Amino acid sequence: MATRYLVLGAGKQGLAAGYDFARFGDAETVTIADANLRAAETGAHRLNTLLNTSTVKPENADVTNLNNLRKLMRQSDVCLSAVPYYFNFDLSGLAIESQCHFCDLGGNTGIVWKQHGLNDAAKRAGLTIAPDCGLAPGMANILAAYGIRNINKPQGAYIRVGGLPQNPRPPLGYSLFFNIEGLTNEYFGKAQVLRGGEVTEVDTFTELEEMDFPAPIGRCEAFMTAGGTSTCPWTFAGQLQEYDEKTIRYPGHYEKMKTIHDLGLLDLKPVSVKEQSVVPRDVFHAVVTPLLKSEDPRDVVLLRVIITEEDGKITMDLIDYYDETTGFSAMQRTTGFGAAMVGIMISKGELPTGTVRIEEVVDGKKYLDEMTRRNLTVKISES
């Protein structure tokens, strides 16, 4: 039976998810909804042209107005949220009320736990709510869970992941490939990890390490950020001694951003400036976003997942580049496609009802096979 998909947000990740639904999801319709109707129309036209179809439809909808969304959700089977993470709890509740399955890109574990509070309501409605389905959180944790289940006596799981410009430029050696609010959400606060088998909070922008990738990438750095582990520390507590996730950047980025972080320029507490109350992080977003936008769309996503045991380890590496044919960035392919893959599994009834932890319910082998269909090739090695 064909599926009616609804994608909230006509930005980069939303369009990538819509493309994947239309291509691989046995879609009756794919509705791209955005507060900016022109963006939705332009995006829908692009996807229909790429796929030579008329399946993708634009709609004008603002996620701050749930009443307007209710009708769209009631007309849909699966809704994917590609809007900022702080909308996802209310959207999950609306999806349950509207009899529509729901998944999202997530990124904030506090919001995810609120969504898990809707578990009983989702079960009663016979619906699946799947938070944190993007790249990290999302794809990285599904791969980690697959590795954990395929090693004899797993001890630790370590995720290293980042999206980078192929041609870095000053001042930060970085370009924006997704919403800057998602970026600073990762950079600020506490990270939940497993240490000594117990869930522990550690500060972001700590535990700097260096790592190497094949040419032309070379040497990179990685440091602790928030949100990427999702619910995995709780899921694997008692099974593993360690579970953590760090963000990969080119050398030098850490020191520059840590200075900004330590100066309080990412704080959420308002300060008074010339008798005006301003939030430092809002100012940072406004000033920095234009500087980090690039006309060069070519990027690369680096994902390394290491699962250790007493006498060895499994390493899973994914290196994905901007796709010249479709114009989708590597970040869109890994994040948008990754979330859509979960949405398609939901549409097929492959995930249980309720609010689910994807590391528990997604079949890792099947997920890897679906990645391969999308030319997202994971190299797995054992030592």
Structural category: alpha/beta
Look up the CATH topology of the largest domain. Answer: Dihydrodipicolinate Reductase, domain 2
Number of helices: 14
Distance between the ends? 44 Å
CATH class of the largest domain: Alpha Beta
For the record, the count of structural domains works out to 2
What is the assembly state of the chains in this entry? single chain
CATH architecture tag of the largest domain: 2-Layer Sandwich
- The spatial strand order of the largest sheet comes to 3-2-1-4-5-6-17
Count of beta strands: 18
**Percent of residues in β-strands:** 25-35%
Task: Give the full name of the CATH homologous superfamily of the largest domain.
Answer: Dihydrodipicolinate Reductase, domain 2
Mean pLDDT: 94
Shape: globular
Low-confidence stretches: none
The Rg value, from CA coordinates, equals 20 Å
Largest β-sheet summary = 7 strands, parallel
- Provide the helix percentage: 25-40%
SSE blueprint:
Elements: E1 3-8, H1 12-24, E2 27-34, H2 37-51, E3 56-60, H3 66-74, E4 78-81, H4 88-97, E5 101-104, H5 109-116, H6 119-125, E6 128-130, H7 139-149, E7 156-165, H8 180-187, E8 190-195, E9 198-203, E10 209-213, E11 218-224, H9 232-235, E12 242-249, H10 253-262, E13 271-273, E14 276-278, H11 280-292, E15 299-309, E16 312-321, H12 330-347, E17 354-355, H13 358-361, H14 364-373, E18 379-382
Parallel strand pairs: 1-2, 1-4, 2-3, 4-5, 5-6, 6-17, 7-12
Antiparallel strand pairs: 7-15, 8-9, 10-11, 11-12, 13-14, 15-16, 16-18
